[in-house]
Each structure stands twice: as C-alpha cells, then as structure tokens.
C-alpha cells in the first residue's frame, strides 16, 4: 500500500471528492473529514494519527476473532494461488464451498443441512425472500406470499433488504418497496410494555401482533415471518423469554415459515453458534454473514432447512437465482479457517460460560448505576446501554436520540469505539475479549458517561 505517501488531509480531501459512503451525511463528512482507520491488532483499531481505540463493535458486528490473524491471511493467499476463482453455476463446484457447506450443516440446528452463498447479508436475505415465495409456489400456493416483519428490523440495504426491514427513514428513500411485506411491533419491553405489564406478558402480546397480522391477511396468504433473534441495528433489542416460543407456536399453527436473520447473532455472539440455539427456535431459513469470515472476506450463507430444500430439489427444476461470487473459493477458505480458530480457541463456550456473564455483570454492576442510564441489557457479547434524562420516568433528553451521540463522541475521544443508535449505546465486541478487556471497556464507558452527563445536564 502506498497511502503512506499521502497526508491525512490529502486522504480526507480525496475521500470527500470521490468516495460516497454508506449511511453518511456527506455534507457533514466533508466538513469534519473522515477518521482514517489504518491498522488493527487483536481487540484494538488504530487511526492514521496513531490513536488507539478499543473496538467495542468488532468492526461492524463482524470481527469475532479479532484483528491481525495471520492464519486468515495465509488461508486467503494459499487459495488465491491455487485457484482464485471459479463459479458454482452450471453443475460446477470448487472444493472450499463444498467443505464449508459440510461444516455449516454440522454446526447448524438439526433440521438445516443446505447452504446457499452470497457476498453479503443483504444478498442472502434477497435469496431467502425469493426462496420462501418460490417454495409456496412450488407447493401450489403462489398466493401464500406475504411476509411479516417488524418495525425497526434491519435486514440489509438492497431493495429487498430495505423492504424486509422496518426502518422508516430507509423506506422513505426507497421509492416503492417490494410488495406484500408488512411490519408489526417490535418486542421491546422497556419502551413498549404497558404500565404494570410484566415482560413475559408483553412478550406474548408482541408475538400475538404476528398472529393478528396472519389473521388479517388470512393464513393462506402468509408465507413467512422474518426476524432477528435479537434486533441488532435497531438497538440490541432483546425480546422477553416468552416471545420466541410464542412466535414458533403461531408459525406452526398457521403453517407460516420462520425465517431467522442471524447476520449479527450468528457464529458465537450469543454464546451458541447460532441464537436459534440460544432461544430454542426451529427456523426454516437462517441468514448468516459478517462473522462467518470475521469480516476478513465478504461472504454470506443462507442456511436452508430440510422442508424448503427438499421441495426445491424434488419439485423445483432450475432455480433462476445466484451470484457470480456465490461460494467464492477464497472467501470460503477464510470462513473455514475462521471457524477452525473459533473452535480451537473455544470462543463460543467462553462467551457462554465466562465472558458473556462477566460482560453482563460489568453492565449491571458498574454501568446501570450511572445517572444517565435507564437500562442495560445483554446476551453473550452483545449489549446496549439506554441513555435517559430521568431514570425513574424513562424520560429522554430529546426524541431524536442525540444524547447517545454525545456519549459516543466522548467514548471515542477516550479510546472506546462504540455505536449510538437512537438513544441506545451499542456494544458487540470481538469474542476474544477477556475479563481484563471488559474491565477496560467498563472504565472507558463510565468516563464517557460522566463527561456526557456534564454536557447534557448543562445544556
Ligand atoms: N441482516 C442483519 C440483521 C444485519 O445486521 C444485514 C442483514 C445486511 O448485511 P450486509 O452484509 O448486506 O450489510 C445486516 C447488516 C449498523 C449496521 O449500523 C448494521 C449492519 C450493517 C451496517 C450497519 O448497526 N448490519
């Protein structure tokens, strides 16, 4: 790389002149200049000025084995030398996606034994949407094609991903969504439970909004329900324990397929390989991406349950769908090595029995006591801190969620990279975090909260 020949200022100018960024207000970016992340090691990222930041977001929910893994670079290099690319169309295959598929079938819940590859979570959700509608058409029920999703869901940024998702701002910029997708309430008790309603009662009520949507459309018109086991980009919204079993019951009762989006929760984040296992959900499709390669290569895998797969194989003929890079050999080689590392280092088990509980304890015993914090919540190494003006009444500073941005900016200035979404501060760190890393994160977050409180209460 020759970027060292450029000053930060020059890079920022070129960035502003030529590079349109995802989810970015470009006018603001041009005024501020982008932060140039230039290297990373273990749990830390570094910017061009040498500033060290503890990466509380594992990149963007993906770098589960942490940075600087030579083994992953070597796996990519070896595969590129041997065979950089060949497609998996037209009855061809290459060995790495074959072996990865076997591995994923072993790790996935028992009813899942087939994999369809893409290069992003959005692509694989597009595949999932097409597949479930195609399934019902093949079963002679083409009208059974409505999908039920949830407000605030994030399922990606393509037209299909945005349509499946429930982000209002994204829909406003879409100019017409994929038809026949409806959105029901999210299972977020802290904000939506009625006074006196228990979390479990609220969870049942939230699940029954899915039943209401099925009854309204008629079960013969509903193909599937799609949901993230824990809503990620929507603010790490963890459903009450009653929610998923009730969703499962409703889907079975009305013969509605269950699509899980585990792009964030897959590959160890919740202390099991998949959150389907954490919550005991039996799904017909599971979308995965991100941590499949720990972000070292773009790769997604739609895990397809036996019910859909057998219809596709037996009745489907040719499925007119696929991507040039479906089953890309280099990405699949990196995924295989990444899974080997996760297994060898026992990272999933460690999240379940050690770091996950310790992370929860840090949030509960240190962060939740802070005057700005209305609620903390976590499963495994995925958590959120809710910022409020008043702990007792849950009053927010302002409706737009600008208070969390103040906290985030102080966090970054104090060596802690984390996200703000609405008034939720988000944590989704690499699974290599130890108790010591969690302590360090706790110190930095507390400092950021103190500084933010001084700003926010003064304003
Ligand atoms: N489903 C879920 C649950 C996701 O979180 C996607 C699908 C789409 O994946 P791709 O690979 O197409 O981006 C995601 C992605 C954020 C943020 O701000 C979250 C995602 C992507 C970008 C930003 O939290 N999740």
Could you characterize the architecture of this molecule?
- Belongs to the class-III pyridoxal-phosphate-dependent aminotransferase family.
- GO terms for molecular function: pyridoxal phosphate binding; transaminase activity.
- Helices cover 43% and strands 16% of the residues.
- By secondary structure, the chain is of the alpha/beta class.
- The protein has two domains: 144 residues, Alpha-Beta Complex (Aspartate Aminotransferase, domain 1), CATH 3.90.1150.10; 274 residues, Type I PLP-dependent aspartate aminotransferase-like (Major domain) (Aspartate Aminotransferase, domain 2, 3-Layer(aba) Sandwich).
- The strands form three sheets. It has a seven-stranded mixed β-sheet, sandwiched between helices.
- Helix 10 packs parallel to helix 11.
- The termini are far apart.
- The mean pLDDT is 97.
- The protein binds 3-[O-phosphonopyridoxyl]--amino-benzoic acid.
- 3-[O-phosphonopyridoxyl]--amino-benzoic acid binds next to helix 6.
Strand order of the largest sheet: 4-10-9-8-7-5-6
- CATH architectural label of the largest domain: 3-Layer(aba) Sandwich
Give the total of domains: 2
Give the overall shape, derived from the CA principal axes.
globular
CA gyration radius, whole angstroms? 22 Å
Task: Report the mean per-residue pLDDT as an integer.
Answer: 97
- Major sheet size, sense and barrel closure: 7 strands, mixed
Helix content: 40-55%
Structural class: alpha/beta
What is the fold-level CATH name, i.e. the topology of the largest domain? Aspartate Aminotransferase, domain 2
Q: Which stretches of 5+ consecutive residues score pLDDT under 50?
A: none
Question: What's the count of strands?
Answer: 15
Percent of residues in beta strands: 15-25%
- Ligands, deduplicated: 3-[O-phosphonopyridoxyl]--amino-benzoic acid
**Can you tell me the CATH class of the largest domain?**
Alpha Beta
CATH superfamily of the largest domain: Type I PLP-dependent aspartate aminotransferase-like (Major domain)
Terminal-residue CA separation = 45 Å
Number of helices: 17
InterPro entries: Aminotrans_3 (IPR005814), PyrdxlP-dep_Trfase (IPR015424), PyrdxlP-dep_Trfase_major (IPR015421), PyrdxlP-dep_Trfase_small (IPR015422)
Keywords: Aminotransferase, Pyridoxal phosphate, Transferase
EC number: 2.6.1.-
Protein name: Aminotransferase
